[in-house]
Design a protein that fits this description.
- The protein is an alpha+beta fold.
- Helix content is about 50%, strand content about 15%.
- It has eleven helices and nine strands.
- The chain has helices at about 30-60, 65-70, 90-105, 105-125, 130-140, 160, 255-290, 300-330, 335-360, 370-385, 390-400, and strands at about 145-150, 165-170, 170-185, 190-195, 205-210, 215-220, 230-245, 290, 295.
- Strands 1, 2, 3, 4, 5, 6 and 7 form a seven-stranded mixed sheet that branches. It has a two-stranded antiparallel ribbon with strand order 8-9.
- α7 (about 255-290) packs parallel to α9.
- The chain is elongated.
- The termini are far apart.
- The protein binds flavin-adenine dinucleotide.
- Flavin-adenine dinucleotide (FAD) binds next to β1, β3, α10 and α11.
Length: about 400
Protein backbone atom coordinates (compact mmCIF):
# COMPACT_ATOMS: atom_id res chain seq x y z
CA UNK A 1 0.00 0.00 0.00
CA UNK A 2 1.39 3.42 -0.96
CA UNK A 3 2.17 5.78 1.99
CA UNK A 4 0.66 9.24 1.67
CA UNK A 5 3.07 12.15 1.29
CA UNK A 6 1.89 13.59 4.63
CA UNK A 7 2.63 10.36 6.52
CA UNK A 8 6.11 9.98 5.01
CA UNK A 9 8.99 10.68 7.43
CA UNK A 10 11.07 13.74 6.53
CA UNK A 11 14.29 12.64 4.83
CA UNK A 12 17.48 12.96 6.87
CA UNK A 13 19.71 15.63 5.32
CA UNK A 14 22.17 14.09 2.87
CA UNK A 15 25.65 13.71 4.38
CA UNK A 16 28.00 15.95 2.44
CA UNK A 17 31.62 15.02 1.71
CA UNK A 18 34.14 16.07 4.32
CA UNK A 19 36.43 18.72 2.80
CA UNK A 20 39.75 17.21 1.76
CA UNK A 21 42.45 19.29 0.10
CA UNK A 22 44.37 16.19 -1.04
CA UNK A 23 42.21 15.49 -4.11
CA UNK A 24 44.78 13.35 -5.94
CA UNK A 25 45.62 11.35 -2.78
CA UNK A 26 49.27 12.35 -2.74
CA UNK A 27 49.46 11.23 0.85
CA UNK A 28 49.49 7.64 -0.48
CA UNK A 29 52.98 8.31 -1.83
CA UNK A 30 54.41 8.58 1.69
CA UNK A 31 56.04 5.62 3.42
CA UNK A 32 54.31 4.39 6.62
CA UNK A 33 56.93 6.18 8.75
CA UNK A 34 56.54 9.42 6.81
CA UNK A 35 52.78 9.17 6.98
CA UNK A 36 52.88 8.64 10.75
CA UNK A 37 54.83 11.87 11.23
CA UNK A 38 52.60 13.83 8.87
CA UNK A 39 49.51 12.57 10.71
CA UNK A 40 51.06 13.48 14.04
CA UNK A 41 51.74 17.02 12.82
CA UNK A 42 48.20 17.32 11.45
CA UNK A 43 46.65 16.16 14.72
CA UNK A 44 48.81 18.61 16.65
CA UNK A 45 47.99 21.55 14.42
CA UNK A 46 44.26 20.79 14.43
CA UNK A 47 43.97 20.16 18.16
CA UNK A 48 46.50 22.54 19.70
CA UNK A 49 47.15 25.39 17.26
CA UNK A 50 43.87 25.91 15.43
CA UNK A 51 41.77 26.62 18.54
CA UNK A 52 44.02 29.46 19.75
CA UNK A 53 45.83 30.87 16.75
CA UNK A 54 43.31 33.51 15.68
CA UNK A 55 43.52 35.12 19.11
CA UNK A 56 47.33 35.29 18.94
CA UNK A 57 47.15 36.52 15.35
CA UNK A 58 44.75 39.31 16.33
CA UNK A 59 46.94 40.22 19.32
CA UNK A 60 50.17 40.29 17.27
CA UNK A 61 51.66 37.80 19.73
CA UNK A 62 53.63 34.56 19.61
CA UNK A 63 52.04 31.55 21.41
CA UNK A 64 54.89 30.71 23.76
CA UNK A 65 52.49 28.36 25.58
CA UNK A 66 52.82 26.01 22.57
CA UNK A 67 56.61 25.77 22.58
CA UNK A 68 56.97 22.77 24.96
CA UNK A 69 54.50 20.63 23.00
CA UNK A 70 55.80 21.86 19.62
CA UNK A 71 59.29 20.69 20.58
CA UNK A 72 57.85 17.22 21.25
CA UNK A 73 56.86 16.84 17.59
CA UNK A 74 60.48 15.94 16.85
CA UNK A 75 60.71 17.99 13.66
CA UNK A 76 63.81 20.06 14.50
CA UNK A 77 66.28 19.62 11.65
CA UNK A 78 63.83 17.73 9.46
CA UNK A 79 65.56 16.78 6.21
CA UNK A 80 69.10 16.98 7.67
CA UNK A 81 71.11 13.85 8.41
CA UNK A 82 73.07 13.42 11.65
CA UNK A 83 73.79 15.91 14.43
CA UNK A 84 70.65 14.93 16.34
CA UNK A 85 68.48 16.22 13.47
CA UNK A 86 65.14 14.65 12.58
CA UNK A 87 66.44 13.60 9.12
CA UNK A 88 64.09 12.03 6.58
CA UNK A 89 63.36 12.72 2.94
CA UNK A 90 62.74 16.11 1.38
CA UNK A 91 59.30 14.83 0.49
CA UNK A 92 58.52 14.29 4.16
CA UNK A 93 59.96 17.71 5.01
CA UNK A 94 57.68 19.25 2.39
CA UNK A 95 54.55 17.46 3.57
CA UNK A 96 55.23 18.54 7.15
CA UNK A 97 55.64 22.18 6.04
CA UNK A 98 52.38 21.86 4.10
CA UNK A 99 50.58 20.49 7.16
CA UNK A 100 51.87 23.31 9.37
CA UNK A 101 50.75 25.98 6.90
CA UNK A 102 47.41 24.22 6.30
CA UNK A 103 46.49 25.44 9.78
CA UNK A 104 48.76 28.44 10.22
CA UNK A 105 51.45 29.96 8.02
CA UNK A 106 53.01 31.82 10.95
CA UNK A 107 53.75 28.58 12.81
CA UNK A 108 55.17 27.19 9.57
CA UNK A 109 57.31 30.31 9.20
CA UNK A 110 58.55 30.03 12.78
CA UNK A 111 59.58 26.45 11.98
CA UNK A 112 61.11 27.50 8.63
CA UNK A 113 63.16 30.33 10.09
CA UNK A 114 64.60 28.19 12.88
CA UNK A 115 64.93 24.77 11.28
CA UNK A 116 65.35 25.93 7.67
CA UNK A 117 67.16 29.24 7.59
CA UNK A 118 69.11 29.24 10.86
CA UNK A 119 69.92 25.53 11.22
CA UNK A 120 70.24 25.22 7.44
CA UNK A 121 72.94 27.91 7.36
CA UNK A 122 74.99 25.90 9.83
CA UNK A 123 74.19 22.57 8.17
CA UNK A 124 75.13 23.79 4.69
CA UNK A 125 77.85 26.34 5.45
CA UNK A 126 79.22 25.37 8.88
CA UNK A 127 82.39 23.38 9.65
CA UNK A 128 82.13 19.90 11.16
CA UNK A 129 82.93 21.39 14.56
CA UNK A 130 80.26 24.07 14.21
CA UNK A 131 77.66 21.50 13.19
CA UNK A 132 78.56 19.32 16.18
CA UNK A 133 78.30 22.26 18.52
CA UNK A 134 75.13 23.96 17.33
CA UNK A 135 72.85 21.56 15.46
CA UNK A 136 72.01 19.06 18.25
CA UNK A 137 70.85 21.75 20.68
CA UNK A 138 68.96 23.55 17.92
CA UNK A 139 67.33 20.30 16.79
CA UNK A 140 66.08 19.92 20.36
CA UNK A 141 64.85 23.55 20.23
CA UNK A 142 66.98 24.41 23.28
CA UNK A 143 68.46 27.26 21.29
CA UNK A 144 66.17 28.95 18.78
CA UNK A 145 67.57 30.74 15.78
CA UNK A 146 66.94 33.49 13.27
CA UNK A 147 68.49 34.48 9.94
CA UNK A 148 69.57 38.07 9.32
CA UNK A 149 70.10 38.91 5.68
CA UNK A 150 67.66 41.73 4.75
CA UNK A 151 68.49 45.30 5.78
CA UNK A 152 66.37 48.45 6.09
CA UNK A 153 67.71 49.75 2.78
CA UNK A 154 68.59 46.47 1.05
CA UNK A 155 66.07 43.73 0.27
CA UNK A 156 66.01 42.26 -3.24
CA UNK A 157 69.51 43.58 -3.90
CA UNK A 158 71.06 41.69 -0.98
CA UNK A 159 73.41 39.63 -3.15
CA UNK A 160 75.51 42.63 -4.16
CA UNK A 161 74.36 45.38 -1.85
CA UNK A 162 74.69 44.37 1.81
CA UNK A 163 75.87 47.30 3.90
CA UNK A 164 76.40 45.46 7.20
CA UNK A 165 80.16 45.13 7.60
CA UNK A 166 82.47 42.54 9.15
CA UNK A 167 86.00 43.57 10.01
CA UNK A 168 88.57 41.05 11.16
CA UNK A 169 90.29 42.00 14.43
CA UNK A 170 92.79 39.38 15.58
CA UNK A 171 90.90 36.21 16.36
CA UNK A 172 87.50 37.85 16.15
CA UNK A 173 85.30 39.97 13.91
CA UNK A 174 83.55 43.28 14.50
CA UNK A 175 80.05 43.56 13.01
CA UNK A 176 78.29 46.86 12.31
CA UNK A 177 74.98 47.54 10.59
CA UNK A 178 71.27 46.87 10.70
CA UNK A 179 69.00 43.98 9.73
CA UNK A 180 65.27 44.28 9.14
CA UNK A 181 62.37 41.85 9.06
CA UNK A 182 64.24 39.17 10.95
CA UNK A 183 61.76 36.48 12.06
CA UNK A 184 62.10 35.20 15.67
CA UNK A 185 64.78 37.83 16.39
CA UNK A 186 62.97 39.71 19.19
CA UNK A 187 63.29 36.69 21.47
CA UNK A 188 65.54 33.98 19.98
CA UNK A 189 68.99 32.84 21.16
CA UNK A 190 71.14 32.53 18.05
CA UNK A 191 71.27 34.90 15.07
CA UNK A 192 72.88 34.02 11.77
CA UNK A 193 74.08 37.40 10.52
CA UNK A 194 75.24 37.91 6.95
CA UNK A 195 77.75 40.75 6.53
CA UNK A 196 80.23 42.01 3.97
CA UNK A 197 83.88 41.43 4.81
CA UNK A 198 85.54 44.83 4.32
CA UNK A 199 88.78 43.09 3.32
CA UNK A 200 87.57 41.07 0.32
CA UNK A 201 84.06 42.51 -0.17
CA UNK A 202 82.52 39.01 0.09
CA UNK A 203 79.38 38.15 2.09
CA UNK A 204 80.12 35.97 5.12
CA UNK A 205 77.89 34.38 7.74
CA UNK A 206 78.32 34.67 11.50
CA UNK A 207 76.71 32.78 14.37
CA UNK A 208 75.93 35.48 16.91
CA UNK A 209 74.93 34.55 20.44
CA UNK A 210 72.72 37.59 20.56
CA UNK A 211 71.64 37.44 24.21
CA UNK A 212 75.22 37.70 25.45
CA UNK A 213 76.76 39.92 22.76
CA UNK A 214 77.23 43.56 23.76
CA UNK A 215 76.18 45.95 20.97
CA UNK A 216 73.40 43.65 19.68
CA UNK A 217 69.89 45.08 20.06
CA UNK A 218 66.48 44.25 18.54
CA UNK A 219 63.33 46.27 18.16
CA UNK A 220 60.14 44.32 17.49
CA UNK A 221 58.40 45.37 14.26
CA UNK A 222 54.84 46.47 14.98
CA UNK A 223 51.65 46.87 12.94
CA UNK A 224 52.16 44.00 10.48
CA UNK A 225 49.08 42.93 8.56
CA UNK A 226 50.34 39.40 7.76
CA UNK A 227 52.05 36.55 9.61
CA UNK A 228 51.24 38.44 12.77
CA UNK A 229 52.06 35.47 15.01
CA UNK A 230 55.73 35.42 13.96
CA UNK A 231 57.69 38.14 15.67
CA UNK A 232 59.90 40.10 13.28
CA UNK A 233 62.57 42.47 14.44
CA UNK A 234 64.93 45.18 13.36
CA UNK A 235 68.40 44.31 14.60
CA UNK A 236 71.12 46.88 15.25
CA UNK A 237 74.72 45.70 15.45
CA UNK A 238 77.07 48.21 17.01
CA UNK A 239 80.64 46.96 17.23
CA UNK A 240 79.42 43.44 17.98
CA UNK A 241 82.43 41.17 18.54
CA UNK A 242 82.13 37.62 17.22
CA UNK A 243 84.90 35.01 17.55
CA UNK A 244 86.39 33.57 14.35
CA UNK A 245 85.14 30.20 15.64
CA UNK A 246 81.61 31.52 15.01
CA UNK A 247 82.18 32.55 11.40
CA UNK A 248 80.52 29.98 9.16
CA UNK A 249 83.59 28.27 7.79
CA UNK A 250 81.92 27.24 4.54
CA UNK A 251 80.19 30.58 3.90
CA UNK A 252 82.64 32.57 1.84
CA UNK A 253 80.45 34.41 -0.64
CA UNK A 254 76.80 35.09 -1.42
CA UNK A 255 76.75 31.85 -3.41
CA UNK A 256 76.87 30.03 -0.07
CA UNK A 257 74.01 32.13 1.30
CA UNK A 258 72.04 31.29 -1.84
CA UNK A 259 72.34 27.55 -1.14
CA UNK A 260 70.42 28.12 2.08
CA UNK A 261 67.82 30.24 0.26
CA UNK A 262 67.34 27.53 -2.37
CA UNK A 263 66.34 25.06 0.33
CA UNK A 264 64.03 27.47 2.11
CA UNK A 265 62.38 28.67 -1.11
CA UNK A 266 61.57 25.03 -1.74
CA UNK A 267 59.92 25.05 1.66
CA UNK A 268 57.93 28.22 0.94
CA UNK A 269 56.54 26.45 -2.13
CA UNK A 270 55.14 23.78 0.19
CA UNK A 271 53.98 26.35 2.74
CA UNK A 272 52.02 28.31 0.15
CA UNK A 273 50.49 25.02 -0.99
CA UNK A 274 49.50 24.32 2.62
CA UNK A 275 47.83 27.71 2.98
CA UNK A 276 45.79 26.88 -0.10
CA UNK A 277 44.74 23.49 1.32
CA UNK A 278 43.62 25.14 4.55
CA UNK A 279 41.78 27.88 2.67
CA UNK A 280 40.10 25.40 0.32
CA UNK A 281 38.93 23.09 3.10
CA UNK A 282 37.65 25.96 5.27
CA UNK A 283 35.84 27.51 2.30
CA UNK A 284 34.24 24.27 1.15
CA UNK A 285 32.94 23.59 4.67
CA UNK A 286 31.57 27.11 4.94
CA UNK A 287 29.76 26.89 1.61
CA UNK A 288 28.22 23.55 2.61
CA UNK A 289 26.84 25.10 5.80
CA UNK A 290 25.98 28.66 4.85
CA UNK A 291 22.41 29.00 3.60
CA UNK A 292 21.15 31.72 1.27
CA UNK A 293 17.89 31.65 -0.67
CA UNK A 294 17.05 28.63 1.49
CA UNK A 295 19.92 26.52 0.14
CA UNK A 296 23.59 25.91 0.95
CA UNK A 297 25.62 28.38 -1.08
CA UNK A 298 27.67 25.35 -2.25
CA UNK A 299 24.66 24.43 -4.39
CA UNK A 300 25.07 27.49 -6.62
CA UNK A 301 26.87 27.06 -9.92
CA UNK A 302 29.00 30.18 -9.59
CA UNK A 303 30.14 29.07 -6.14
CA UNK A 304 31.09 25.60 -7.38
CA UNK A 305 33.08 27.22 -10.18
CA UNK A 306 35.24 29.08 -7.64
CA UNK A 307 35.61 25.97 -5.45
CA UNK A 308 36.77 23.93 -8.45
CA UNK A 309 39.25 26.65 -9.41
CA UNK A 310 40.59 26.73 -5.85
CA UNK A 311 41.05 22.97 -5.87
CA UNK A 312 42.77 23.16 -9.26
CA UNK A 313 45.33 25.56 -7.82
CA UNK A 314 45.88 23.43 -4.70
CA UNK A 315 46.37 20.27 -6.74
CA UNK A 316 48.64 21.87 -9.34
CA UNK A 317 50.91 23.20 -6.59
CA UNK A 318 50.95 19.88 -4.75
CA UNK A 319 51.99 18.01 -7.89
CA UNK A 320 54.64 20.58 -8.74
CA UNK A 321 56.06 20.44 -5.22
CA UNK A 322 56.05 16.66 -5.18
CA UNK A 323 58.18 16.54 -8.34
CA UNK A 324 60.48 19.14 -6.81
CA UNK A 325 60.82 16.93 -3.74
CA UNK A 326 61.93 14.06 -5.98
CA UNK A 327 64.54 16.30 -7.64
CA UNK A 328 65.70 17.45 -4.22
CA UNK A 329 65.94 13.89 -2.88
CA UNK A 330 68.01 13.00 -5.96
CA UNK A 331 70.33 15.97 -5.35
CA UNK A 332 69.17 17.70 -8.53
CA UNK A 333 67.36 20.72 -7.09
CA UNK A 334 68.70 23.91 -8.67
CA UNK A 335 68.12 27.54 -7.66
CA UNK A 336 66.00 27.97 -10.79
CA UNK A 337 63.81 24.95 -9.91
CA UNK A 338 63.14 26.26 -6.40
CA UNK A 339 62.59 29.80 -7.71
CA UNK A 340 59.93 28.70 -10.22
CA UNK A 341 58.01 26.78 -7.57
CA UNK A 342 58.27 29.60 -5.03
CA UNK A 343 56.97 32.14 -7.56
CA UNK A 344 54.22 29.92 -8.97
CA UNK A 345 52.86 28.52 -5.71
CA UNK A 346 52.87 31.84 -3.86
CA UNK A 347 51.10 33.54 -6.79
CA UNK A 348 48.51 30.75 -6.90
CA UNK A 349 48.12 31.01 -3.12
CA UNK A 350 47.16 34.67 -3.44
CA UNK A 351 44.54 33.73 -6.02
CA UNK A 352 43.19 30.77 -4.01
CA UNK A 353 42.85 32.63 -0.71
CA UNK A 354 41.15 35.57 -2.37
CA UNK A 355 38.51 33.28 -3.92
CA UNK A 356 38.04 31.72 -0.48
CA UNK A 357 37.67 35.09 1.16
CA UNK A 358 35.14 36.06 -1.48
CA UNK A 359 33.03 32.97 -0.75
CA UNK A 360 32.90 33.82 2.97
CA UNK A 361 31.23 37.11 2.12
CA UNK A 362 31.50 39.60 4.99
CA UNK A 363 32.68 36.86 7.37
CA UNK A 364 35.75 36.58 5.18
CA UNK A 365 37.24 39.67 6.77
CA UNK A 366 36.73 38.50 10.38
CA UNK A 367 39.76 36.72 11.83
CA UNK A 368 37.55 34.17 13.67
CA UNK A 369 36.76 32.42 10.39
CA UNK A 370 40.43 31.63 9.56
CA UNK A 371 40.13 32.63 5.92
CA UNK A 372 40.97 36.27 6.70
CA UNK A 373 44.24 35.09 8.27
CA UNK A 374 45.07 32.89 5.26
CA UNK A 375 44.22 35.81 2.97
CA UNK A 376 46.59 38.22 4.73
CA UNK A 377 49.37 35.69 5.33
CA UNK A 378 49.59 34.73 1.64
CA UNK A 379 50.78 38.28 0.95
CA UNK A 380 53.86 37.82 3.11
CA UNK A 381 54.77 34.50 1.52
CA UNK A 382 54.55 36.12 -1.89
CA UNK A 383 57.20 38.69 -0.91
CA UNK A 384 59.56 37.04 1.56
CA UNK A 385 62.48 34.73 0.73
CA UNK A 386 62.85 36.78 -2.46
CA UNK A 387 59.93 38.45 -4.18
CA UNK A 388 57.97 37.07 -7.13
CA UNK A 389 59.99 39.24 -9.51
CA UNK A 390 63.33 38.08 -8.09
CA UNK A 391 62.33 34.42 -8.48
CA UNK A 392 61.28 34.98 -12.07
CA UNK A 393 64.57 36.73 -12.81
CA UNK A 394 66.39 33.63 -11.52
CA UNK A 395 64.22 31.45 -13.78
CA UNK A 396 64.63 33.89 -16.66
CA UNK A 397 68.41 33.73 -16.42
CA UNK A 398 68.35 29.91 -16.39
CA UNK A 399 66.04 29.50 -19.39
CA UNK A 400 67.41 32.29 -21.59
CA UNK A 401 71.04 32.08 -20.60
CA UNK A 402 70.96 35.86 -20.15
CA UNK A 403 70.98 37.57 -16.76
CA UNK A 404 68.50 40.41 -16.44
CA UNK A 405 69.66 41.31 -12.93
CA UNK A 406 70.80 44.92 -12.76
C1 LIG B 1 56.91 38.61 6.97
C2 LIG B 1 58.31 38.72 6.50
C3 LIG B 1 59.29 37.95 7.10
C4 LIG B 1 60.63 38.08 6.69
N1 LIG B 1 61.60 37.38 7.34
C5 LIG B 1 62.91 37.59 7.02
C6 LIG B 1 63.95 36.95 7.76
O1 LIG B 1 63.69 36.18 8.70
N2 LIG B 1 65.24 37.21 7.44
C7 LIG B 1 65.57 38.05 6.41
O2 LIG B 1 66.77 38.25 6.17
N3 LIG B 1 64.60 38.69 5.69
C8 LIG B 1 63.28 38.48 5.97
N4 LIG B 1 62.29 39.11 5.25
C9 LIG B 1 62.66 40.06 4.20
C10 LIG B 1 62.28 39.61 2.81
O3 LIG B 1 63.11 38.58 2.37
C11 LIG B 1 62.28 40.85 1.92
O4 LIG B 1 61.13 41.61 2.30
C12 LIG B 1 62.27 40.54 0.45
O5 LIG B 1 63.48 39.96 0.04
C13 LIG B 1 62.01 41.80 -0.39
O6 LIG B 1 62.81 42.85 -0.02
P1 LIG B 1 62.15 44.28 0.28
O7 LIG B 1 61.01 44.08 1.19
O8 LIG B 1 63.25 45.18 0.72
O9 LIG B 1 61.56 44.76 -1.11
P2 LIG B 1 62.35 45.55 -2.28
O10 LIG B 1 63.60 44.83 -2.61
O11 LIG B 1 62.44 46.99 -1.93
O12 LIG B 1 61.32 45.35 -3.49
C14 LIG B 1 60.15 46.16 -3.66
C15 LIG B 1 59.51 45.78 -4.99
O13 LIG B 1 60.42 46.07 -6.07
C16 LIG B 1 60.60 44.93 -6.86
N5 LIG B 1 61.96 44.92 -7.42
C17 LIG B 1 63.12 45.16 -6.78
N6 LIG B 1 64.15 45.04 -7.61
C18 LIG B 1 63.64 44.69 -8.83
C19 LIG B 1 64.20 44.41 -10.12
N7 LIG B 1 65.51 44.43 -10.33
N8 LIG B 1 63.34 44.09 -11.11
C20 LIG B 1 62.01 44.02 -10.90
N9 LIG B 1 61.43 44.28 -9.72
C21 LIG B 1 62.24 44.61 -8.70
C22 LIG B 1 60.38 43.75 -5.92
O14 LIG B 1 60.07 42.55 -6.62
C23 LIG B 1 59.21 44.28 -5.10
O15 LIG B 1 58.01 44.09 -5.79
C24 LIG B 1 60.96 38.97 5.63
C25 LIG B 1 59.95 39.71 5.02
C26 LIG B 1 58.64 39.59 5.44
C27 LIG B 1 57.60 40.43 4.76
Amino acid sequence: MATSAAARKPEAPKALPVPNGDFYQLVELLSPEELALVKKVRAYMDSKVKPIVNKYWSDDAFPFELLPSFKELGIGGLGYEGYGCAGGSQKQFGFVAMELARVDASVCTFFGVHSGLAMGSIYLDGSEEQKQKWLPQMARWEKIGCFGLTEPLVGSAASGGLTTTAKRDGNSWILNGQKRWIGNSPWCDVSIIWARDVADNQVKGFIVENKSSPGFSVEKMEHKIALKVVQNGQITLKDVRVPEANRLQGGNSFRDTARVLRMTRYMVGWASTGIQMGAFEATLKYTQERLQFGKPIASFQLVQDLLAKMLGNVTACQCMMLRLAQLDDEGKLGDHHAALAKAFCTAKARETVSWGRELFGGNGIIADYNIGRFFADAEALYSYEGTYQMQNLIVGKAITGISAFV
